[in-house]
Amino acid sequence: MHGANDLPGLTVAFFRKGAQDAELSERMSFAATVVQITYTDVEGENACTVWLDRDPIEAEVGASAEAEIELAMSAETGISLFAGRVALPIAILNGEVTYRGPVRKFLRVVPIMQSFDFGLFRGQGTDLTCGAQAS
To answer: Which InterPro entries does this entry report, sorted A to Z (predicted)?
Structure first.
């Protein structure tokens, strides 16, 4: 099982695995935005950026000035979101996730993520060979 400090890389791996499925990637690209996810309690590099404005979608560890939407959350909330235990709109309503920018663009495609490999966040299938390391 990976620790909280691996969360940006794990998030990148999650989106990169989704990008490998041509249909899922195309559907996620309908968001036409760039999203930065920051884990507020992670030491070191605590952000990742997901480009949902292209097909295939892309993700990299680190913040990007290109981000139109910025999400901030604790590592625990992030794991719960990506493991499917908490819905992003509810986490936003409860104040567990803060955002800047037109978050509705991302929320439109969040249901598509249910088809992604949540096993990465459940301690299963944690093989990150899909390229979580910086290229």
So the answer is: SCP2_sterol-bd_dom_sf (IPR036527)
